[in-house]
Amino acid sequence: MSAPEITWLSPDTVQVRQPKSSHWEAPFLFLLFGRERALLIDTGATNDEAVFSLRATIDRLTAEWLRRNPAVFTRPYPLVVAHSHAHRDHIAGDPLLAGRPGTTLVGTTPAQVISFFGFRSWPEETVEFSLGRRTVDVIGGPGHEPSAVAFFDRETGILFSGDTVLPGHLYVRDRAQYRATIERLIRFRDAPTAPVRELRGAHVEMSDTPGVIYPPGTLDQPDELPLALPPRILDRVLSALDEAGDEPGARVVRRRFVLVDE
Hey, where are the domains in the chain? Predict the structure, then answer.
């Protein structure tokens, strides 16, 4: 078993990458700590703890954060497990956390996502989700998948965009909804109350050669692009949608992503 790749993006924010050896998708997960509870975005592509030690990793990271933050008194310290969307490689690890003390699993259907976060106008509305002295904005994001959302962390300025925007294949499964989502994210980015510093999606598939992508199933990606994308990437995605037009199965190659109409 290979160890997951752990990156502390801030003292209260952890990026976890599932090892390529456990699943070629190697999805990224994000753990955000607040004074009252933590939020885990996605659970990875396997439910085998022996292959990807999700439960042990979350327990270890939580214990480390609590040692550095002894003023947090609630025990067990609550964890909310949510998802960028409901595709298998982002929800497969849910059973590993289902019985964990203090843990709440958010459902994966649109109705369950809408109910848990309290959306009144889905997907147009943005709702606030408090972790305790830390607020995350939850933005409706269907188009790649019906229950997709993006999470904006006000503390770090990171927009966690799942599979909607990432350095890799952008699979568009509902063109009208996907366009509306990109336009919604652009409006959110451009609002003075939401200083988006960067986007972090759930995979890296692009090489550092502009426009060259690793094909699905690739296990070795020695020259991959960094995960973080600049906020202006949203304009590039909208432009690619314009170029794709109404052509079924259109494929538009850009320097940092490949738009694929499905």
Answer: 5-261
162: left (phi over 0), alpha (psi -120 to 50) or beta: left
Amino acid symbol at 191: A
List of residues 6+ apart from 246 with CB closer than 8 A: none
CATH 3.60.15.10 for the 5-261 domain, yes or no: yes
Q: What is the pTM of this model?
A: 0.97
The token pair at 181 is: 């989502």
- What is the pLDDT confidence band of residue 250, given thresholds at 50, 70 and 90? very high
Distance CA 193, CA 208 (A): 33
Phi, psi torsion values for 238, nearest 5 degrees: -65, -40
C-alpha count within 13 angstroms, C-beta hemisphere, residue 257: 27
Exposed, middle or buried: residue 171 (CB in 10 Å: 0-12, 13-18, 19+)? middle
- Per residue in 150-202, pLDDT (tens digit) is 999 999 999 999 999 999 999 999 999 999 999 999 999 999 887 999 999 99
Please determine, for residue 1, whether its predicted confidence score (pLDDT) is greater than 70: no
Q: Determine contact, residues 140/125, Cβ cutoff 8 Å.
A: yes
CA angle 65, 71, 75 (to 5 degrees): 70
Across the chain, mean pLDDT equals 96
